[in-house]
Write a structure and sequence with these properties.
It comes from uncultured marine group II/III euryarchaeote AD1000_55_C01. By secondary structure, this protein is an all-alpha fold. It has one domain. Helix content is 75%, strand content 0%. It contains 14 helices and no strands. It is globular, with a radius of gyration of 18 Å. 50% of the residues are buried.
Length: 295
């Protein structure tokens, strides 16, 4: 396929790719929740990451793309905070409703708005400040609906959003030194290395259904990344980022239909405040800061 075909503007194609990516990520979240009953978080991380590492290595080899690390310090930090975010997030998925977990994990762009050097180097506009405050009001409704009694498992999902924000910022820094393929591969490889000691002893005790679900988690994560990457090639980044919140809808749908979960009124209001603020925020952030991904 010609390069011009890959990079030409097509909003309709961008939406379709983002729907595909959101469906993949939503399915991944549902599979993580289902497998959390049959396997611990280390096993989920190891198999998911191994699937992605193998696929990316094969892709790099077929295209002659180097996986060399040029900025070792930043790559290490990206892998460390990304793995921490994934541990917290997958643990939360096994304990709280999917819709609640995904919504809180999608606070990462809001933390980026607070922590990013590009934003802090400038004067934060009143509009961005208002959106961040609004979103954090939504967080309070979900994490502490009774204003005094905090849901500790919800804090795990919120923590994953916080660490994911650092991961996004380190990925931005790596854009000038390392290829995207290298960043994805080494994060996956580091996640395998960080989980193998805890997970390996139980690998051969898994039943075929659980193992298939674990592999499906890796495929879902990879498919989600492909969908988002293709979407960003087809339309304006800020416009595309707004559609990334479809993952919240897909995950919540799985929660209702597959797991019989329900959300409280506070969860719904809090979720709308977070998602609404996040969508508005991607149009107000400086160019290049809009993209989001799964850790």
């Amino acid at each position: 396929m010609a390069e011009s075909e890959l990079t030409s503007e097509s909003p309709r194609a961008a939406v379709l790719w983002m729907i595909f990516g959101s469906f993949c990520f939503g399915t991944m979240n549902a599979l993580v929740k289902w497998t959390s009953v049959h396997a611990d978080v280390w096993m989920i991380i190891m198999v998911r990451s191994a699937v992605i590492a193998f696929a990316v290595a094969a892709f790099a080899a077929s295209r002659g793309i180097s996986l060399r690390i040029n900025n070792r310090r930043t790559m290490f930090l990206r892998c460390a905070v990304g793995l921490t975010a994934m541990i917290l997030y997958f643990t939360a998925l096994g304990r709280i409703p999917i819709g609640q977990a995904v919504t809180l994990q999608y606070t990462a762009p809001l933390f980026v708005a607070l922590l990013s050097g590009k934003v802090l180097a400038e004067r934060v506009s009143a509009g961005i400040a208002f959106l961040v405050v609004t979103a954090f009001a939504g967080i309070v409704l979900i994490v502490s609906p009774e204003l005094g009694k905090v849901e500790p498992d919800a804090l795990l999902a919120l923590g994953s959003g916080f660490f994911a924000a650092f991961a996004y910022m380190y990925v931005r820094e790596l854009r000038t030194t390392d290829s995207p393929t290298s960043v994805v591969f080494w994060f996956a490889a580091a996640s395998v290395a960080g989980s193998v000691l805890q997970a390996a002893p139980d690998l051969f005790s898994l039943d075929s259904k659980t193992l298939a679900a674990l592999v499906g988690i890796g495929i879902g994560a990879g498919g989600g990344q492909v969908g988002i990457t293709m979407a960003y090639q087809k339309a304006n980044a800020a416009w595309v980022s707004a559609f990334s919140y479809l993952t919240v809808i897909v995950a919540t749908f799985y929660g209702f239909t597959v797991f019989g979960e329900t959300l409280s009124t506070a969860d719904w209001i809090g979720g709308l405040l977070i998602v609404g603020s996040g969508v508005a925020l991607v149009f107000m952030m400086p160019a290049g800061d809009e993209k989001t991904s799964q850790h």
